[in-house]
């Protein structure tokens, strides 16, 4: 089995159509199916954008996941969520 690396996954959700709780649960389920162990979830709440690119969406919901997973997680995770319009940004950092 591959060695597990630690990652911090920061996500920005569009909560205009789906609740943040539902999106968090969907991401937790996806991480579990990809073999990741979720160590911590921080709901950072709704924050205003510094530079608004869409006047209909001046703010969004921020969530941070700390996970331990295989080295393939960043590529596979982004690909699985690539077409999901309720997710505005994904930032994956090594810890």
Question: What would the keywords be for this entry?
Answer:
alpha+beta, 95 residues, four-stranded antiparallel sheet, 2 helices, 4 strands, Alpha-Beta Plaits
Structural commentary:
With 95 residues, the chain is an alpha+beta fold. It has a single domain, classed as Alpha-Beta Plaits (2-Layer Sandwich), CATH 3.30.70.60. It is built from two helices and four strands. It has a four-stranded antiparallel β-sheet, with helices on one face. The radius of gyration is 14 Å and the shape is elongated.
Structural class: alpha+beta
Number of helices: 2
Number of strands: 4
Overall number of structural domains: 1
Kindly report the average pLDDT value: 93
> What is the string of helix and strand elements?
EHEEHE
Distance between the termini: 20 Å
Summarize the biggest pleated sheet: 4 strands, antiparallel
């Amino acid at each position: 089995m591959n060695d597990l690396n630690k990652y911090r996954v920061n996500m920005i959700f569009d909560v205009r159509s789906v609740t943040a709780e539902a999106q968090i649960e969907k991401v937790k389920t996806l991480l579990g199916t990809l073999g990741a162990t979720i160590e911590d979830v921080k709901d950072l709440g709704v924050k205003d954008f510094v530079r608004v690119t869409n006047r209909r969406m001046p703010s969004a919901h921020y969530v941070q996941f700390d996970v331990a997973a295989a080295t393939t997680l960043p590529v596979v995770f982004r690909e699985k969520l690539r077409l999901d319009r309720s997710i505005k940004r994904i930032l994956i950092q090594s810890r």
